[in-house]
Write a structure and sequence with these properties.
The structure holds three protein chains of three kinds.
Chain A (H helix, E strand, L loop, with lengths): L14 H9 L2 H23 L4 H17 L1 H14 L3 E5 L2 H15 L3 E4 L3 H6 L1 H7 L3 E4 L2 H8 L16 H12 L7 H18 L2 E4 L3 E3 L4 E6 L3 H7 L3 E7 L3 E2 L5 H13 L6 E5 L13 E7 L10 H4 L9 H5 L1 H6 L10 H12 L16 H5 L6 H14 L7 H21 L2 H20 L1 H6 L1 H7 L12 H10 L10
Helix pairs in contact in A: 2-12, 3-12, 16-18, 19-20
Chain B lengths: L2 H16 L19 H14 L3 E5 L2 H14 L5 E3 L3 H11 L5 E2 L4 H5 L3 E5 L2 E3 L4 E5 L19 E7 L3 E2 L2 H7 L13 E5 L4 E2 L7 E2 L6 E7 L3
Helix pairs in contact in B: 3-4
Chain C lengths: L1 E4 L3 H6 L1 H13 L3 E3 L9 H6 L2 H20 L5 E4 L2 H13 L2 H13 E3 H8 L8 E9 L2 H6 L4 H8 L2 E6 L14 H4 L1 H15 L6 E4 L2 H13 L5 E4 H6 L6
Parallel strand pairs in C: 1-2, 1-3, 3-4, 5-6, 5-7, 7-8
Helix pairs in contact in C: 4-6, 5-6, 7-9, 11-12
The chains are: A alpha/beta, B alpha/beta, C alpha/beta.
């Protein structure tokens, strides 16, 4: 049985080393603050204009629940219908299998050049590297993805791959890579990219894309975009390959209405993205345009194991709109690269450890204040904080084998503390004593700063924060006095 | 066991283990607009298309349509015009440009890549978004080849009849099977296009015109 | 109305003024306030850190005690001057199993955050409080997103004599506390606080008011580190205040 998957270039175990450098990168934080605020404000405004937004979310969520609890059936219907339309359907358990299916298809075509439109799954499996190794040059054609590709980076956002870069950054990058002076404005820079990529479209042997939705009923898949690169990718090359996670299937064509109404608004604050391309097989007559062959590669890579529990299963409802990234106060401070995974932000913090195994990314579920902003914006109502808590509890309960080194150290240090804490909290007498000790400690630390610097939680707190001066008497002590002096409110037995 | 069976068994095994069972959802009725008279839809379509930087030209007669096309071509950079072979398109282009040489849907793609304007029809329009819907072509069914002519030139001009307007995406989706070919319910590709191509990948700054058309014109025949 | 008061350990040990103010406000509204000296913590710190069994043992104790107050001592509601502890008592339903889950259900059905209780249950918005100065409201995450508390505190504050409420754009952004998160990833936690405080300092306010003592500890701690004169005040502290001079 295929169980755990893997994510290409995963560095999530370095989270504790990656995020501090993000925090001190002034330029990055400027670009992040600007980009995330702008997009989430746009999202809030377009969503506010929809009267039945909560009904839409309910509907989207119930369709996803239906799909996930009958996934094997919907996939089989999809396969049957897709094949009937002439689409080749391939199944891959692992990234290696998916890569070899695709490189095999490329080889059979004698392909030298592949144009790609943005696909997070392709990042997940490291497809570009696999293509290069088999002699096919992959060219990313989404502007943001192309920027990231020529910079030798990975995307820092699932919708806006180059969100971490300022315009000036991009200008310098283009000038360096293309070896000529570049225009200052975004329009000029976009035109440079367009002309560079136009030749690639004309020359490409294969087009590789992801897909936002598979439609079981008709065996179709739908791809959304704004730039037109997907239309090019799916129209010009002889062969089109769509690489898709198994969870992306929807029961009916009519379900697209609900998802199209939520995804653009959530992702970019657009009522609808510029283009939707619905593919149902290759061209059927020789005088039509479009690919001779259409292939869909269905990837599991650990996804099916998430179905084992209701709490984890909801993760697969994600439609990759990116709304949770833009609203997340943690993502807004550190950006996508700090997460060390192709899937950053709140959704990444639950998806990465579940796909690749908790031990590969056990710090990520702790990289959240559990504020719940992600749950509020999620168009399919994934309770991300609930899953974060579930994964935290797993880290604690399942022992060292599910933790990376940093998490292991952290949890080991906390075990004694929480045991003592729970022992103290189970008796009012012990609780009172513990409270007194805590107040005395805090009082001493406010007088003698070095105390704050030595012990665990106090040390974390006093880095950049002043401790409150603790009160002499606790609330309960004052309430007890109040009761003795006959004022009401003293309450029941002590 | 094949990978396929392996994955499907894995899925079923895990679903069974979770104890979750959900009854399949039912399809919702087709969603329509509250105000859906032809005039309402024309107004809505035009307004929505303009709101995403597209241009909607409402015309009553074919003469007016030809005049609009002439203006668009004149305002363009003067490059070649490409047209599909749909009779309505052929006629309109002839009326507008006379005997000027044009590229067609069967011209080589290198030619189409350099064209300034591409003209096709759109058999379906969606009022709530200002969207045009274009199925891929099929000679046997006499359906025009729109794919490259609507994509490669710098500007795309679509001719749309008001009678082909529907209110919502939901209605458009329900009409797609009628665009189907032979024994299959859907044509190989259906493109939904709303305004010109755009990006905001450089510092979230909106730029119109990337890989797709820089301008999207719709000539809306209000009396057809 | 007879109510059980759940003080929360943080207020009990570190901010008794807020607890006393809450009791005073409730009594002013005609409530009989019962504080059970046996209560300790709701279990939230362990629950949020993944220490489920430790959380369960502490939480189940709190739930039993509160249920007893409801079922045997005639209390009609539980009021807590902290949104996150009230939210934790909601989570208890899932955390505790078996017979305890039923108890937790009863408790969850009757537990209210202070501001929500005053407005939604008692229908009191004007508490004849007076506090002169300019303040802004910080929506504590769990109160806002788990319990849906947004308008109630604003209604209450708008009736306070002499008080001017200024809204911050970042009012519903997390302060960065997040329990152990604040000490295990202090850098991110502080950056989150700073995003709010940068705006707060431009508003010309004397205080930031909130319904959660933990947010106040985070915001005040950071404000003092930054050398700011803005104070952190609990909603109850403002509502209990009668003098026009703070």
């Amino acid at each position: 049985m295929s169980e755990r998957g893997s994510i290409h270039h995963l560095k999530a175990t370095d989270f504790s080393e990656l995020y501090p450098s993000a925090l001190t990168n002034v330029e990055l934080r400027g670009a992040l603050a600007f980009g995330t605020k702008l997009v989430s404000n746009r999202r809030d405004n377009t969503v506010a204009a929809v009267d039945d937004w909560q009904d839409l979310r309910d509907r989207a969520s119930s369709i996803k629940t239906d799909v996930l609890s009958n996934l094997d059936q919907y996939l089989q219907v999809f396969e049957q219908q897709a094949q009937a339309s002439g689409t080749h359907v391939h199944w891959a358990s692992t990234p290696a299998e998916a890569c070899s299916i695709i490189t095999g298809l490329a080889e059979a075509q004698g392909a030298k050049l592949a144009v790609k439109s943005k696909s997070m799954v392709s990042e997940e499996i490291g497809l570009n590297q696999a293509l290069e190794e088999s002699g096919v040059r992959p060219v990313e054609t989404d502007l943001g993805e192309w920027i990231v590709q020529i910079a030798g980076e990975t995307p820092s956002h699932i919708v806006a791959p180059a969100l971490h870069r300022s315009r000036e950054d991009v200008r310098e990058l283009f000038a360096r890579v293309l070896g000529r002076p570049m225009p200052e404005d975004a329009e000029g820079l976009t035109e440079v990219a367009r002309l560079e990529l136009r030749q690639a479209f004309a020359d490409a042997d294969i087009g590789i894309s992801g897909a936002n939705f598979l439609v079981a009923e008709t065996g179709s898949f739908l791809i959304l975009e704004n730039e037109g690169n997907i239309r090019m990718t799916t129209s010009l090359p002889r062969m089109h390959i769509a690489l898709v996670g198994i969870e992306k299937v929807l029961p009916r064509l009519s379900d697209l209405d609900v998802f199209l109404r939520v995804i653009g608004r959530s992702g970019t604050g657009q009522r609808l993205t510029s283009y939707q391309t619905l593919v149902t097989g290759p061209r059927r007559t020789s005088d039509d345009d479009g690919p001779d062959e259409v292939h869909v590669v269905l990837l599991d890579n650990g996804r099916s194991s998430l179905l084992a529990e209701e709490v984890t299963s909801q993760t697969l409802g994600c439609i990759r709109c990116g709304a949770c990234l833009n609203t997340c106060p943690v993502y807004r401070q550190i950006g996508g690269h700090a997460y060390g995974s192709v899937y950053p932000g709140p959704i990444g913090s639950i998806l990465t450890p579940q796909l690749a195994g908790l031990h590969q990314a056990s710090q990520l579920p702790f990289a959240s204040s559990l504020c719940g902003a992600c749950r509020d914006v999620c168009p399919v109502k994934i309770d991300i904080p609930e899953v974060l808590l579930h994964l935290r509890a797993k880290s604690v309960a399942d022992g060292p084998r599910v933790r990376d080194a940093v998490t292991h150290q952290k949890i080991r240090r906390q075990v004694g503390g929480f045991k003592m804490w729970s022992w103290a909290m189970r008796s009012p007498r012990r609780y009172r004593m513990a409270g007194r000790v805590a107040r005395v400690m805090a009082w001493m630390a406010t007088r003698l700063p070095f105390i704050g610097r030595c012990s665990g939680p106090l040390r974390g707190w006093t880095k950049g924060r002043v401790l409150p001066t603790p009160p002499r008497r606790s609330f309960r002590a004052q309430m007890a006095r109040r009761k003795q002096s006959g004022t009401p409110g003293g309450g029941a037995s002590s | 066991m094949t990978t396929r069976d392996d994955i499907l068994n894995c899925i079923r095994g895990h679903i069974d283990a979770s104890g979750v069972s959900t009854k399949p959802t039912e399809a919702l009725p087709v969603r329509t607009l509250v105000r859906s008279s032809r005039d309402d839809m024309i107004r809505e379509f035009a307004q929505q298309l303009e709101s995403v930087a597209g241009c909607c030209h409402c015309v009553q007669t074919h003469d007016e349509a030809a005049e609009v096309l002439r203006t668009i071509v004149a305002e363009g950079s003067g490059g070649t015009l490409a047209r599909s072979s749909e009779p309505r398109v052929v006629q309109l282009v002839e009326q507008a440009l006379g005997s000027t040489e044009v590229a067609t849907d069967s011209s080589p793609r290198e030619v189409l890549l350099d064209c300034a304007v591409g003209v096709t029809t759109a058999p379906l329009g969606i009022a709530e978004h200002g969207t045009i819907v274009m199925p891929s072509g099929d000679a046997d069914l006499g359906r025009e080849r729109t794919r490259l002519v609507a994509l490669l030139p710098l500007a795309h001009v679509a001719i749309l009849r008001a009678s082909d307007l529907v209110g919502t995406i939901s209605e458009a989706l329900s009409r797609l099977p009628s665009l189907g070919a032979d024994d299959r319910p859907l044509p190989p590709t259906v493109t939904f296009a709303t305004g010109p191509s755009r990006t905001a990948d450089i510092q979230q700054e909106l730029v119109l015109g990337v890989h797709g058309p820089h301008a999207q014109h719709v000539i809306l025949l209000t009396h057809d | 109305m007879k109510i059980a008061f759940f003080a929360s350990c943080l207020i009990d040990q570190f901010r008794p003024s807020a607890g006393l103010a809450a009791v005073e406000v409730l009594e002013r509204c005609g409530c009989e306030v019962v504080f059970d000296q046996r209560q300790t913590c709701c279990g939230q710190p362990a629950f949020n850190s993944g220490f489920k069994s430790e959380a369960r043992s502490v939480c189940s104790r709190a739930v039993k005690l509160l249920d007893e107050q409801l079922e045997q001592q005639g209390c009609e509601a539980i009021v807590c001057p902290s949104g996150s502890c009230a939210a934790m008592l909601h989570h208890a339903v899932q955390l505790l199993g078996g017979a305890e889950a039923q108890m937790a259900q009863r408790v969850a059905a009757r537990v209210y955050e202070l501001g929500a209780f005053l407005v939604d249950v008692l229908g009191c918005t004007d508490l004849e409080a007076a506090w002169s100065g300019r303040v802004t409201w910080h929506d504590a995450c769990h109160g806002l997103r788990d319990l849906g508390i947004r308008d109630q505190p604003r209604q209450l504050l708008s009736k306070v004599r002499g008080l001017e409420l200024v809204e911050a754009k970042t009012c519903d952004r997390c302060c960065g506390f997040g329990g152990t998160f604040s000490v295990s990833m202090p850098g991110i936690s502080l950056a989150m606080a700073d995003e709010k405080l940068d705006e707060l300092e431009t508003l010309g306010v004397e205080a930031v008011v909130s319904g959660d003592a933990s947010c106040l500890m985070q915001l005040e701690g950071r404000l003092r580190e930054r050398g700011s004169s803005i104070k952190g005040l609990h909603l109850a502290e403002i509502l209990a205040s009668r003098e026009s001079d703070p």
